[in-house]
Design goal:
Oligomer: homodimer
CATH superfamily of the largest domain in chain A: P-loop containing nucleotide triphosphate hydrolases
Number of domains of chain A: 3
CATH architecture of the largest domain in chain A: 3-Layer(aba) Sandwich
Strand content of chain A: 5-15%
Helix content of chain A: 40-55%
Largest interface: A-B, 63 and 63 residues
Order of helices and strands of chain A: EEHHHEHEHEHEHEHEHEHHHH
Structural class of chain A: alpha/beta
Chain lengths: 341, 341
């Protein structure tokens, strides 16, 4: 191994960290070493990323043994509160499980996190010794963000986490990406009257394996039950005997009601997936898709490095957008330029 | 221009065809030259493809002026019959429009085409002087098929076609790909009772801009009307003021009823898209996406050409699938190997 020592990203003093120690630490479940490896992944420095990549590559044989759960929902639907109740419920049923949570960066109100910050977020859950809570590494970065979340997942698996929950914001494109990297995808919905029910993002229901109508307490309970019927009808449209039809569950994270049922239904779904071998197939495709994305990502980087005055990548894309350059010709020019240099 | 003459693909005798003549021919709307250019696109020969690419690149300034319409539906729903009635209806309203249709290859029953073959397919429509019917170029080819359909579209535009209809089979992945290359996506549905209504492909409704309940005649009319209500409710879920809510229309291609309304509603949709500038944005994204796909396609080809015993692309993919190689590391190895050679 060529890297025996590396500088840790984010530490203000140059701190020497032992490479092998980090690997051993992660495999032993050390939070400190896991956190440092994730920080390296998040770095913008080329050398940090290279170390993170090598670390991850050595840890690969110890990955893949968790359940990866995506949870989405629009701001205000109560994702954090639900995840906290959900995590505690899982630990009640299976106290030996280790749970990792990748949350939306809480410091940024734009991304839907609480402006109150880390400290009040999943306060009770995050203090549990078997739980590791970490903000999403994808802040603001275009394209590469979802890839980093995927790799963070792998690192967490190597550190022995059995269940990885990825919180994602129900706006923008993020939930499509997360939906494509998890084993199960949960949508949190808030009870709404017929007209308010409008505006649900098109495409989102297609990704869903379990729909949870949250905040089903007090005044909202009645509406929640009506909503349930509508969603069941929608899912019925795409139901076949072989396929999984997403259950629609009512829950109240506040009253901690119905959250245990979510875990039971989720386990049913995961077992169903394993039985039909869809679980493994999905994972294989996800890994290959991630590889393709990495290929594009790294290729784009190389193209930018090698662009000349004659061949500006931006100019090529502009020409394609305006229909002045045919995409296949453009791809050929770019590749030839890359190989020449 | 380096290619002044080229051998025409598919012709058994080596026939010399003039490059500039082909370009001029296409721009003048010659069916013969258009058909030959499409055949070159479909070729498996490297040299044919290079000519097709150069042809297309020169024709680019004359592309982009059509409406691209995708039509999908499961086998038996009556796609060909509908497209025939639809095309004739358009010509009734706008007799000067030129219509091109890319159909499912009719010679292959597996792909959902009629085994009776070309001759009885869209018999009446295809004889119209303003109509050009061509089977889809994507037969059996993995990955590249949709890209070729996209490029065929561009060639047809250069030949002056105002409306391009792309028929696609409502099974497999094809309609997702076609859904992402057209301006409007129509789903043909057959009236069904509640239980039969099941089994609709998940994800398909998300792509739809217009849903047509076809075969709404005789016994099926009543059920069709009931289905309409259910679909309207589904679309209502994702409706907002700004967004287009897909209309659900009843039609009978046999009785030629309701088909004219489809054209009127489709035009409303296209105008709505142009007004919100979504039309142009979608096209730009489609062109860039096509470029990315071409980049991956050509890159994969180059990787395969340059693979050594040490680096078999298949072996790398197998390792990624089995979680033994981390995707980012794999991408780096592949790119480095490519650049080295």
């Amino acid at each position: 191994m060529c890297f025996t020592n590396f500088r840790c990203f984010k530490s203000k003093k140059l701190k020497l960290m032992n490479y092998n120690e980090t690997i051993e630490g992660i495999l032993k479940g050390s939070r400190k070493h896991l956190a440092k490896a994730i920080s390296l992944l998040e770095s913008y420095r080329e050398d940090d990323l290279l170390i993170a990549q090598n670390l991850l590559d050595e840890l690969m044989p110890s990955t893949g043994k968790s359940y990866r759960i995506g949870i989405t929902g629009i701001p205000g639907v109560g994702k954090s509160t639900f995840i906290e109740a959900f995590g505690e419920e899982i630990l009640k049923f299976e106290p030996k499980k280790k749970i990792a949570v990748i949350t939306i960066d809480p410091s940024s109100p734009k991304r839907g996190g609480s402006i109150l910050g880390d400290k009040v977020r999943m306060n009770s859950l995050s203090r549990h010794e078997n739980v590791f809570v970490r903000p999403s590494p994808s802040k603001g970065e275009q394209g590469g963000g979802a890839l980093k979340t995927y790799e963070t997942c792998l690192l967490m698996e190597a550190a022995g986490y059995d269940i990885i929950i990825i919180e994602t914001l129900g706006v923008g494109q993020s939930e499509y990406k997360v939906g494509q990297m998890v084993d199960a995808f949960l949508l949190l919905h808030m009870p709404a009257t017929g007209d308010e029910l409008q505006g649900m993002k098109r495409g989102i229901l297609e990704l869903v394996d379990l729909l949870i109508i949250n905040k089903c307490d007090g005044k909202l309970e009645h509406e929640g039950k009506l909503n349930k019927k509508i969603f069941e009808q929608v899912f019925h449209l795409s139901a076949t005997k072989k396929k999984w039809s997403p259950p629609v569950l009512l829950a109240s994270s506040k009253e901690k009601e119905g959250v245990g049922v979510v875990w039971q239904e989720l386990k049913k779904f995961l077992l169903h997936q394993k039985k039909t071998r869809d679980f493994q197939k999905k994972r294989e495709n996800q890994a290959l898709e991630c590889f393709n994305q990495q290929l594009i990502f790294k290729l784009n980087k190389k193209i930018r490095e090698k662009e000349t005055k004659l061949l500006s990548y931006e100019a090529i894309q502009e020409k394609i957008k305006n229909g002045l350059l045919c995409p296949s010709k453009a791809a050929q020019i770019v590749l030839e330029n890359l190989m020449k240099a």
